[in-house]
């Protein structure tokens, strides 16, 4: 199957965060992929916004990871209690339970996977370009168990 990648710029992320916090009352936001590049940016920015209570969701909760995320939160916050280990690749049950139990208002999905380009698709794309055939694009795949 083909995968198209739509990168989010920092402006798009900030806009999404701002839209989440438009409401007057406190908002509880869960960030999936909180340990990753985009997820940790969202986790850090949300902690700086007044009225946001932030939960981090990670695939594997380790002391090092909790320490990394604690550095992004206010000093008086017990980050360990707001980091949850959730593997979304095993189905929605675990995630749904945490969201419900914790009373989460919004879920920011910042998980990702790294696609690998199909080498044959590069050859097809180059040949199509040479023959001036439009609409032929490279295709990508994800490693087993690595879909976003």
Automatic annotation (TrEMBL):
Q: Which residues form the signal peptide?
A: 1-26
Determine the domain of life of the protein's source: Eukaryota
Asked if Transferase is a keyword of the record, the answer is: no
What are the record keywords, sorted?
Answer: Signal
InterPro entries from the xrefs? NAD(P)-bd_dom_sf, SARED1-like
Which GO MF terms are attached to this record?
Answer: oxidoreductase activity
Asked if the Swiss-Prot or TrEMBL record annotates the protein with the keyword Nuclease, the reply is no
**Where do the coiled-coil regions begin and end?**
none
Q: Tell me the SUPFAM superfamilies matching this sequence.
A: NAD(P)-binding Rossmann-fold domains
Descriptive protein name: NAD(P)-binding domain-containing protein
